[in-house]
Amino acid sequence: MADEVENSEELPSTAGELADQYPDVWEQYSGLGKACSEAGPIDDETKRLLKIALAAGSESEGAVHSHVRRAVDEGVDPETLRHVAILSIPTLGFPKAMATLTWIEDIVAE
């Protein structure tokens, strides 16, 4: 799974700025992400869907956008991405799930 971005120009602006200003911090952070990704048996698509769900649960629009963008690039079906938002209704509540659905649509509709 390609969670780690080699080039800071490919990162969202704030993360890219951090990577440029503090390359050692970014390298360690990226390494942690890679180690966590490789620590268990979950397949890549499921990991991506979980990351979307975790981002939704933390109400991080930017993280949802980022993981949805990567999922689309990795060939995940948009209906599968929407299903993540629908699954979140009983856990996160209807308003947060609908916010997540709109964040997913922001990227899917591009």
Automatic annotation (TrEMBL):
Domain Carboxymuconolactone decarboxylase-like positions: 23-106
Pfam families xref list: CMD (PF02627)
Coiled coil: none
InterPro entries: AhpD-like (IPR029032), CMD-like (IPR003779)
Ranges where the record places region Disordered: 1-20
GO molecular function: peroxiredoxin activity
Protein's name in the database: Carboxymuconolactone decarboxylase family protein
Protein source organism: Halonotius roseus
